[in-house]
């Protein structure tokens, strides 16, 4: 009587196992100096996930918001995967490790004592790489290649069969993808902003027709140096120097009336005043960096006097947004309520005592930390007690209570960020959400983007803007004037 035919599943299992062993032998027997040199150190680096922990620390410390989120998601995916593999799957299917005498030059220093299926190193690698990639695609692509190399190292060092590695990859990827279903990745995409509005105007190489209003005292004396550079590069430009008793509004109005092109060199407050007159007359504005920080000048590509002169000579003009406060005051950069106006007011008060700006800044910060209290207002009708409130002209980098730099000044939105007071463990919760890259989910941090934002309150509150302490208001409406100001600049016209 003939033996019964083997079960098809058993035949398949035996065939796959035989293929697995043959593939292992092929890698083990391959005479490759490159594998001999790289595989054992790489495999050892991935022991206990050390490699991935170091990369996660780098992403969290040096990367942007999506990198920090990716690092957190990658580590969580890795931890869950390791638990499933080591405490579950390895016990369900206790496969023996391969005999790795064929790889003496690159085999691991010691044979792992756990069972072989699936590969824990490969599972952790896939979980981390895909977890990071779900939040930051570029980093994910790079880590996918590294994860694949780690999987290869487990075969090349004789620790696993290829089937163990493939199964590990599948488990790690599955855990990361399942995690994305439970906690969806954050979508950082923004509405696409139309291309910059750019034009060319006819200008004279020597600056004829340009009237520059300049504050010699700005930037702790930088204004005087800038005046000399302008006279040297643009000899026919007219420079109107402000004095301590000058009425800047009158000077600006007179300059705007007779100039073909307006120029300004001073702090952000001076620049904003000239910008308002440039808007009213429709004339292009050249912004020379003569203030302390030069936020607006830097963001339009006017880092140096030479860069501004080059823009003027080439007639490169772009249209950028400005912000109107109650349709009366023009703002170019930012506005704040709460702690920041208190800081500006205190710093100004200390500077009047003829101490250095750095010392005045430190004393003002100390004063605010000791004495500043939340401001109770209504933001678009929603009551809020805010300890920090920031409003920017255009988007200021990634979400954070510490705004970054603007990449555009013509996107047509106000960037509003604020911290709400009154939550338990507010600062701890804020720090945790910031480190994890999920600050938008925080109950302490709020943000909105809109073309118009209104703030009102029962008690007057101070609105600081463009480095000035500002005035008291019970209602402040901020409105974007889309691409209303024409400026000479480089970064917006390339």
UniProtKB/TrEMBL annotation:
PROSITE patterns: DAGK (PS50146). Its main location: membrane. CDD domains: PAP2_like. GO terms for cellular component: plasma membrane. It is found in: Cell membrane. SMART domains: acidPPc (SM00014), DAGKc (SM00046). GO terms for molecular function: hydrolase activity; kinase activity. It is a multi-pass membrane protein. Keywords: Cell membrane, Hydrolase, Membrane, Transmembrane, Transmembrane helix. Pfam families: DAGK_cat, PAP2. The keyword Nucleotide-binding does not apply. Residues 205-329 form the DAGKc domain. The keyword Transmembrane helix applies. This is Phosphoesterase.
């Amino acid at each position: 009587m003939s033996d019964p035919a083997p079960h098809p599943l058993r035949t398949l299992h035996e065939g796959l196992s035989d293929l697995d062993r043959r593939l292992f032998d092929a890698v083990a027997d391959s005479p490759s100096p490159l594998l001999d040199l790289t595989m054992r150190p790489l495999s050892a680096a991935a022991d206990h996930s050390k490699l991935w922990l170091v990369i996660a620390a780098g992403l969290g410390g040096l990367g942007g918001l999506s990198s920090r989120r990716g690092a957190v998601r990658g580590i969580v995916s890795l931890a869950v995967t390791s638990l499933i593999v080591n405490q579950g799957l390895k016990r369900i299917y206790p496969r023996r490790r391969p005999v790795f005498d064929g790889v003496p030059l690159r085999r691991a220093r010691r044979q792992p004592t756990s069972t072989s299926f699936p590969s824990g190193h490969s599972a952790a690698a896939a979980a981390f790489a895909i977890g990071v990639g779900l939040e930051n695609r570029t980093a994910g692509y790079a880590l996918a290649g590294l994860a694949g190399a780690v999987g290869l190292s487990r075969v090349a060092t004789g620790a696993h069969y290829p089937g163990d590695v493939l199964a590990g990859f599948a488990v790690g990827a599955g855990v990361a993808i399942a995690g994305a279903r439970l906690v969806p990745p954050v979508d950082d995409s923004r509405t696409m902003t139309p291309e910059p509005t750019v034009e060319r105007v006819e200008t004279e190489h020597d600056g004829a027709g340009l009237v520059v209003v300049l504050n010699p005292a700005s930037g702790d004396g930088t204004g005087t140096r800038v005046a000399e550079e302008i006279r040297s590069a643009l000899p026919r430009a007219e420079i109107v120097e402000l004095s301590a008793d000058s009425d800047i509004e009158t000077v600006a109005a007179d300059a705007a009336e007779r100039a073909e092109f307006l120029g300004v060199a001073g702090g952000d407050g001076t620049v904003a005043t000239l910008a308002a007159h440039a808007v009213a007359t429709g004339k292009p504005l050249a912004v020379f960096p003569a203030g302390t920080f030069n936020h607006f000048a830097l963001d339009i590509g006017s880092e140096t006097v030479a860069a501004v002169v080059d823009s003027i000579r080439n007639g490169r003009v772009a249209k950028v947004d400005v912000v109107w406060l109650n349709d009366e005051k023009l703002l170019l950069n930012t506005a704040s309520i709460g702690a920041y106006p208190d800081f500006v007011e205190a710093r100004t008060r200390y500077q009047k005592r003829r101490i250095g700006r750095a010392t005045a800044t430190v004393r003002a910060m100390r004063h605010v930390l000791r004495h500043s209290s939340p401001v109770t207002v209504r933001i678009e009708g929603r009551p809020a007690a805010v300890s920090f409130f920031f409003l920017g002209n255009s988007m200021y980098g990634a979400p954070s209570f510490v705004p970054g730099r603007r990449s555009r000044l013509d996107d047509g939105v106000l960037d509003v960020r604020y911290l709400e007071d009154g939550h338990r463990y507010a600062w701890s919760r804020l720090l945790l959400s910031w480190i994890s890259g999920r600050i938008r989910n925080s109950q302490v941090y709020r943000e909105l983007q809109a073309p118009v934002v209104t703030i009102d309150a029962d008690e007057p509150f101070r609105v600081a803007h463009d480095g000035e302490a500002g005035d008291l208001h019970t209602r402040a409406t901020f409105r974007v004037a889309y691409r209303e100001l024409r400026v000479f600049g480089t970064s917006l016209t390339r």
